[in-house]
Design a protein that fits this description.
With 97 residues, the protein is mainly α. The protein has one domain. The chain is built from six helices and no strands. Helix 1 runs antiparallel to helix 2, helix 3 packs antiparallel against helix 4 and helix 5 packs antiparallel against helix 6. The termini are far apart.
């Protein structure tokens, strides 16, 4: 069965809900293989999953990798920063938005 952005988003949400970091990393590899890393919802799913797994360096890596940010990726990143206890960085990013 072929995977698509909807499948990846659902799988990333499952990983985020139970902080399944290794499975999330495996899904990111598949996302890159399928060239789905340009889909805004897939990218936001990755940002959310890494934030909920408390991997802010990976969260920032995924966010910064995108050449252009939209409202969805900004909002996901801001929420991730707040959840990680980095409210000041979240406010800075909000101002940048």
């Amino acid at each position: 069965m072929e995977q698509d952005p909807h499948t990846f988003v659902a799988a990333l949400n499952a990983c985020a809900s139970v902080a399944a970091l290794e499975e999330g990393r495996d899904i990111e590899e598949k996302i890159l293989q399928c060239d789905c890393d340009c889909n805004v919802f897939v990218v936001s799913g990755l940002i959310d999953m890494y934030a909920k797994c408390r991997r802010m360096e990976d969260t920032l890596r995924v966010f910064k990798k995108r050449p252009k940010h939209d409202l969805v990726s900004f909002n996901t990143m801001i929420v991730g920063l707040v959840q990680y206890g980095q409210g000041e960085k979240a406010l800075e990013l909000f101002q940048e938005m």
